[in-house]
Design goal:
The protein is mainly α. The chain has helices at residues 3-15, 29-36, 56-60. The termini are far apart.
Length: 61
């Protein structure tokens, strides 16, 4: 990532609370529904790439 993009996102995260970010979902219902259709076993690992402040793993767990 180039420096200007990093600076841009650092400023966004510094200026806003997590729940003010447009992509934040307190309850990530669409993602949970999608994963439930994948029939993932309880012993399988899940990687939430680019999760940031995501609550997805908390709700899935």
């Amino acid at each position: 990532m180039n420096t200007s993009m990093k600076e841009h996102w650092d400023e966004i995260y510094a200026a806003l609370d997590v729940d003010e970010l447009t992509w934040y979902e307190e309850i990530p219902e669409p993602s949970i529904k999608l994963l439930s259709r994948c029939h993932v076993n309880k012993d399988e690992s899940i990687l939430d790439v680019g999760a940031g402040a995501s609550t997805f793993i908390d709700y899935y767990y």
